[in-house]
Amino acid sequence: MNKLYLAFDIGGTTIKYSLVDAELHFSAGDRCSTEHNRDGHILKQLQSITADYQKKYTLNGIGISTAGIVGDEGQIQYAGPTIPGYQGTELKKVLVQQSGLPVIVVNDVDAALLGEQLAGAAQGKSAVYCVALGTDIGGAYLDHGQLLNGAHATANSLGYTLYDQQSKTNYEQRASTLTLEHQLVDLKTSVPVAFDKARQQEAPFTTIINNWAAEVATGLANIILLFDPEILLIGGAVSQQGDFLLALLNRALKPLLPPDLCQTELRVTQLADRAQLFGAVADFYN
Description:
CATH topology of the largest domain: Nucleotidyltransferase, domain 5
InterPro entries: ATPase_NBD (IPR043129), ROK (IPR000600)
Keywords: Kinase, Transferase
CATH superfamily of the largest domain: ATPase, nucleotide binding domain
Number of strands: 12
Strand content: 15-25%
CATH class of the largest domain: Alpha Beta
Strand order of the largest sheet: 3-2-1-4-7
Organism: Loigolactobacillus backii
Pfam family, one: ROK
Protein name: Glucokinase
Largest sheet: 5 strands, mixed
Shape: globular
Order of helices and strands: EEEHEEEHEHEEEHHHHEHEH
Number of helices: 9
């Protein structure tokens, strides 16, 4: 019998969901708005969608990828201002009680990494670190099948690292993709177009992109030296820049690492916006 799992991916503005079968095929997927979680809208939506799917399909489990820090009981332990009123939401408890199914809840960056190991760029690798570059910067570390999140589930909070006293900025304030977008506003240029222009060696885009890559590399160097992963995955929409992005980052890393010491390979993620959906249900395939 082909098992079916219901996968959710909860972001700041959108909830994506889909069925995933035993062969990792997606079907019956859709998306809806979080409505900024007004009156607990996110949990209510998950309950409504779950009830609807259970009427139509025989489900074997539910997986949830979500923004925020996830506690041991599948609750939202911490949520920033992106999703108001989300902190403390008992996702797992409520859905287990409603559905009678096993429910897995995992942070979205962790989910992206789990998805890439299940069906993407990290397949077959035992020690993998993932850096998600976007509005902020998140990290996740998978070591021999175990997500390492620290004693209080707040490890890998990369964005808050590398605080600079002079500029009063942390890592993500200097190296996020959002920061790069802000640097391009006066030039009326998007990040993808800026990369295209940098490929053509067009000023000032070459300098802007190189400087941004150098900022990103400062965080990557610390990850490589501290964790020594087999693979360091670069995720987020900017990962679509592929080999060009990897060449920029590898070049920027050279002066930051001792010669001939580090063997970590940089890769970009492969699964794009499906990584979190794969990762939400990844534990059901182990």
